[in-house]
Amino acid sequence: MNDREEPESIVRLREERDAYRLERDLYRRLLDLNRQTELEPLLREALALIVEVARARQGYLELQPEHGPGWSIAHGFTPEAVDAVRARVSQGIIAMALTGGRTILTSSALRDERFSGRESVLSGQIEAVLCAPIGEEAPMGVLYLQGRDVPESFSAEDQERAETFARHFALCAHRLLAERRPAEADPLARLRQTLRLEGVVGRSEALVAVLQQAALLAPLEVTILLTGDNGTGKTQLARVVHDSSPRAGQPFVEVNCAALPETLIESELFGALPGAHSTALRRITGRVAAAERGTLLLDEIGELSPSAQAKLLQLLQSKQYTPLGSARTVQADVRVIAASNTDLAAAVASRRFREDLFYRLQVMPLRMPSLAERLEDVPDLVSAFCATAARRHGLGRMRMSDGAIRAAQAAEWPGNVRQLAHAVEAAMIRAAGEGVLEIQRRHLFPPANGRGADGGQSETFQEATRRFQARLLRDTLEDTGWNVMEAARRLDLKKSNIYQMIKAFGLGRDKP
After folding, report:
1. What pLDDT, on the 0 to 100 scale, is given for residue 271?
2. DSSP designation for 107
3. Which is it for strands 335-340 and 364-367: parallel, antiparallel or unpaired?
4. DSSP state of 457
5. Does residue 403 sit in helix, strand or coil?
6. Angle between the 402-410 and 378-393 helix axes, to the nearest 10 degrees?
7. Which of 43, 286, 365, 501 is disulfide-compatible with 270, CB 3.0–4.6 A?
8. Which residues contact 304 (CB under 8 A, 6 or more apart)?
9. What pTM did the predictor assign?
């Protein structure tokens, strides 16, 4: 051995010491990023840190939150090269990291069969690359490192440090974004100043929009028509309007017009004197009288009989009504909110619903969004339903697994919030029966028990729908070259929803 050469053990010891110091310095400097109070300096300091630690020749850091503007910063790239890197966010290596939600590491993109045929790789003669998504559930950005200042390629240790950096940077970015938009943590915060929202769960744009309209209408003495599919929460919205109005504290009376026999609808609504009809053996106090000084919710109003429609029109126009069997009109002080999940305009066209009543109700319509329009609310809804089911059945505290929540967001819920609530309750009972504290996807979507006509295992509606959605999403991603933003535009979904569905369905460019 040459006298100047050090023993292998000493060299290894020095390398381990240097690696330890690098890890220590990385964590210390990551903690220092927490002191940053502005996004632009955060990006600049963060990229400088990871480029130095990874000994990368070039680096690019991009932050694209769901709402608001995006930010990006580059190191070692010419302006033209930066534009090329930005273009690769929606395709190629960066797109694969984002859609797959995992780090891409290659010693040479030129020789890597996954990327060697791509024009951007060939034109840029791209060799060593390390690319990590920022944000775990739905990536909010990306870290892209290219080339090395040392002969070696990026190592597994470099990948681990980059992923540590990405996790920590995501936390810092989330904090600063929340500070920029103080109401983002609870978009309903301002509305809670004017509306009583006890029991209202969610933070989606669709929910906020309808509640903003409700806040305008609640203090006004105006009839409201609530529309929306079954199970969307129209009754809850009516209750919010009542509780936030000057009539709060007075009766809130709900009538399901579809549940009443046609022969009894009028007496149930407007009351009846003894002998007014065969079942009126005594005086019947109608629901309108029961709601005096309060609010009357008429659900499924399209099911009212023609004569009941005429009396309701009189009530709305003159604030008077006549009980069955009486010749005397009664003055009413009641606010009417109507609700329907059917197309009343079509009912008017087919002469099943009075046109003058329809226009009288249609003065201020409010449409409750379907669950498909507020997928961002699913995690909060699931959490609330778990807590409710635990109290109802005396179960311990349980939570839904992340995988089950993503599956719930990707599923079709034709019964909307009501169906989701029942499914979560059933899943919680199944999980409790197994003695586990975390609800898994199998509890939420149990396999079908029956068999199909061909003798094979039958497929539930949910399973068939998920299979169709997975195929549609994969086909769209393939058609767009896995450009998530373009796929989201074509499917009329948010980018975050696409990422969630990719994870829920286990899709990937390298998977069948």
Report:
1. 82
2. S
3. unpaired
4. B
5. helix
6. 120
7. 286
8. 257, 265, 298, 312
9. 0.61
